[in-house]
Each structure stands twice: as C-alpha cells, then as structure tokens.
Amino acid sequence: MTPSEMTALLARLNDRIRSAVTGASSLAVLAVVSIIAGYGVHRVAPELAKTVAFFAILGGLGMIVAYRFYTWQREEVYDDIVLQGFRHVHPAAVARRAAALVSRTRRTQLADTLDRYVSAAQENHPTPVPVHRSAILAVRPQVRQLSLILRTEEVELEPAGMVLLTRLITDGATSPLYRLSADERELRRELDRIRAALAADDDTRLAA
Fold first, then answer.
1. Residues 6+ apart with CB under 8 A from 62
2. Which of 30, 152, 154, 199 is the right S-S partner for 56, CB 3.0 to 4.6 Å?
3. Which among 147, 141, 155, 142 has a CA at the least distance from the CA of 206?
4. For residues 147 and 114, is the Cβ–Cβ distance under 8 A?
5. pTM of the full predicted structure?
6. Using CA atoms, how far apart are residues 31 and 26, in angstroms rounded to an integer?
7. Are 166 and 194 in contact (CB under 8 A)?
C-alpha cells in the first residue's frame, strides 16, 4: 500500500469513527428524551417511550461496536505505516501509536504472553486457543530471550519490531505460533526476524 492509499484509507476510517461517535451520542440523547417524555412529563405513552428508548440504546450499542472496530482498523493502518517507515503519513498520530507500542505496559503484556505459552507447552497447561506446543518447545530459548529483552527497560525497542511481535501473537489464522501444521523452522525464522527488528543492540545491553 502506498502512502497516498494509506492517507485515503485513514481519511475514510476517521470519517466512519466520527459518524459512529455522532450516531452513538444522538441515540443516547434520544433514549433519555424518550424516557423523560414518557415517564417525566407524560407527553408520550410510557410503552411507546420504553420501545423508542430500547431501540435507541440498542442502536447506540451498535454504534459503539462500530467505533471500536473502526478504531482497531485505524491502529492496524498505523502499524503498517510504522512497519513501512512512512512516518510522514499522519505523523502525530503515528508517533503516538509508536510510543504506545514500546510502552512499559505493552512490553510487559507481550512478555507475559510469551512466558505463558512456554509454560503451557512445557507443562501441558490448557490455553485459551490451541498453540503449536512442539514448535514452541523447539524455539524455547529464542522465546525466552525475547521475553527478557521486553522486560529489560534499558533496552530501547523499535516500534516496528513490536508490531511484528504483536501480530505473531494475535494473528491466529496466519501465525506459526498457532498453526499446528506449520514447520518449527517457520516459527524460528519469524522469531529471528522479530528479534532483528526489535532491538539491534540487545545483546550488548543485556550483557552490561
């Protein structure tokens, strides 16, 4: 995707996000006005007011779901921008996203997830989704090293590496972490790629 295509996509997503916010706000107001009209000032039949309020609330919840979905899609586009190095596309928003990607909270979340998967593979614990246990055991040293890098605050991380690691953990349909048919070497190569993108000077910092 080119920078101009990303800009156009972000414009569409921002429009949809604004529409979802506006729709949710309007429906919330409609629900409140209906309740007041039906039960406060008695200008409308209570049953009608209740029905209108119910559908307004239902529609508002739908708008909130749409808002969350479009916000997630926008973050995915920001991540693509980080990966491709197009920092001139929506620079302020992308800079905020990059800072969130390397935040202490995100580092800890990803490290905890990696450690849980290694423990589950070693001790045969149940996991929320099926994981490729034999592949995880085969690359256990690499996974442990990544977890250590994430937990070592002195190591400065690259947002692009955090995007790759996040997608390895969250892309259930394509990630070799979950595909039981994937070759162990595929997961090993992906971990090598993530480590190279994550922190080029990690060994020096960790040894210090």
1. none
2. 30
3. 155
4. yes
5. 0.84
6. 9
7. no
- List of residues 6+ apart from 13 with CB closer than 8 A: 70, 73, 74, 77
pLDDT tens digits along 145-167: 999 999 998 999 999 999 999 99
Rounded CA gap, 107 and 112, in Å? 9
3 state DSSP class of 123? helix
Measured distance CA(83)–CA(131) in Å, rounded? 26
On the 0-12 / 13-18 / 19+ scale of CB atoms within 10 A, 82 is: buried
Contacts of 110 (CB under 8 A, 6+ apart): 150, 162, 165, 166, 169
Condensed to tens digits (0 to 9), the pLDDT of residues 61-110 reads 999 999 999 999 999 999 999 999 887 899 999 999 999 999 999 999 99
Amino acid present at 195: R
In angstroms, rounded to a whole number, what is the distance separating the alpha carbons of residues 154 and 164? 21
Structure-token pair, residue 90: 């929506």
Q: Which two tokens stand for residue 19?
A: 């529409």
CA atoms within 13 A on the CB side of 176: 16
Are the C-beta atoms of residues 127 and 120 closer than 8 Å to each other?
Answer: yes
From the CB of residue 160, how many other CB atoms can be counted at a distance below 10 Å? Answer: 18
